[in-house]
């Protein structure tokens, strides 16, 4: 079977897109960022006659602050994501309606998280703004060289689910009922977005199995979160993995495998020889990722045990 070009893919999948757009609009809950902010905790900073931030004002742990900043800066690069989605989808008809709707919904996430962090003085607003400027100026590259429509569908399916997991775990780590409720609301949005893209991916697999499984294998084996270019990302990502906000095991068990099972990648019988090669490449990667996850978990457990022992000696 020949590969379909961009225009052919959009045409063939337009009905699926419209069905899932209508489904999404019927299920998406209207919510307002201002309803999730404890405004009575707000007060002026020095420029308005108040006090500037210092760490003693934050009720979040170092881990929770790191996770919240990482999640917020990821949401901040929405203009880059919109541009990439518009380029790889379309702004015509229902495609454009979805791109606009998705962008509007995602924009709320950055609004509500920043308002919470500034009003509650959870983080240094000056450093947060500097990091936002740097991160947005750098922008976000395409998830991989040669990315196309099918790569984008595969990538955003995994990325939306990964973001849902990260937001929920961050909410739990905050130890703050307001933050937990806010991040649970954001995670619910991300889950609906994931379902939309996952359904589009399922239709693409039925339409052009070999072409789609190649894109899925490409994305899964080279996946990176869109915050990769933010300041201190690798250091912060290691801290989040160390304390269970988002690690290799969660990526494998809570993100990658559930999506692949839903797409029935390892049960399908409609791949040609080329498609089977890509499925085999994906299976090998999963085995390797599982081994890496186990190795990381063992190393992390030893490290945390040593830290706990040192803390006990000090106390």
TrEMBL record:
Q: Which UniProt keywords apply?
A: Fatty acid biosynthesis, Fatty acid metabolism, Iron, Lipid biosynthesis, Lipid metabolism, Metal-binding, Oxidoreductase
State the source organism's domain of life: Bacteria
Q: Does the keyword Secreted apply?
A: no
UniProt cross-references to Pfam families, sorted A to Z: FA_desaturase_2 (PF03405)
InterPro entries, alphabetized: Fatty_acid_desaturase-2, Ferritin-like_SF, RNR-like
The cofactor(s) it depends on are: Fe(2+)
Subunit structure, briefly?
Homodimer.
Return the similarity comment. Answer: Belongs to the fatty acid desaturase type 2 family.
Q: What is this protein called?
A: Acyl-ACP desaturase
- Please tell me the species this chain comes from: Rhodococcus sovatensis
Q: What is the lineage of its organism?
A: Bacteria, Bacillati, Actinomycetota, Actinomycetes, Mycobacteriales
């Amino acid at each position: 079977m020949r590969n379909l070009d961009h225009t052919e893919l959009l045409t063939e999948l337009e009905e699926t897109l419209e069905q899932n757009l209508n489904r999404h609009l019927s299920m998406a809950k209207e919510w307002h960022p201002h309803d999730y902010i404890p405004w009575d905790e707000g007060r002026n900073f020095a420029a308005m006659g108040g006090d500037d931030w210092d760490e003693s004002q934050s009720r979040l742990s170092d881990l929770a602050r790191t996770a919240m900043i990482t999640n917020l800066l990821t949401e901040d690069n929405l203009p880059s994501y919109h541009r990439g989605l518009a380029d790889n989808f379309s702004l015509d008809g229902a495609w454009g309606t979805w791109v606009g709707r998705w962008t509007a919904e995602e924009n709320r996430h950055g609004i509500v998280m920043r308002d919470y962090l500034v009003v509650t003085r959870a983080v240094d607003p000056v450093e947060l703004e500097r990091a936002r400027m740097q991160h947005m100026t750098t922008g976000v590259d395409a998830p991989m060289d040669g990315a196309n429509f099918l790569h984008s569908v595969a990538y955003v399916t995994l990325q939306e689910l990964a973001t849902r997991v990260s937001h929920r775990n961050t909410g739990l780590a905050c130890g703050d009922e307001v933050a937990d409720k806010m991040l649970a609301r954001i995670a619910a949005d991300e889950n609906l977005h994931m379902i939309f893209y996952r359904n589009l991916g399922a239709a693409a697999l039925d339409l052009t199995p070999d072409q789609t499984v190649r894109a899925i294998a490409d994305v899964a084996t080279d996946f990176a979160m869109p915050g990769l270019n933010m300041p201190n990302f690798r250091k912060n990502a290691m801290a989040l993995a160390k304390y269970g906000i988002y690690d290799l095991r969660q990526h494998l068990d809570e993100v990658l495998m559930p999506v692949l099972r839903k797409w029935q990648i390892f049960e399908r019988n409609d791949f040609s020889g080329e498609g089977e090669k890509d499925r085999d490449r994906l299976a090998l990667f999963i085995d390797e990722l599982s081994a890496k996850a186990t190795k990381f978990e063992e190393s992390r457990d030893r490290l945390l045990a040593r830290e706990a022992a040192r803390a006990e000696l000090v106390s």
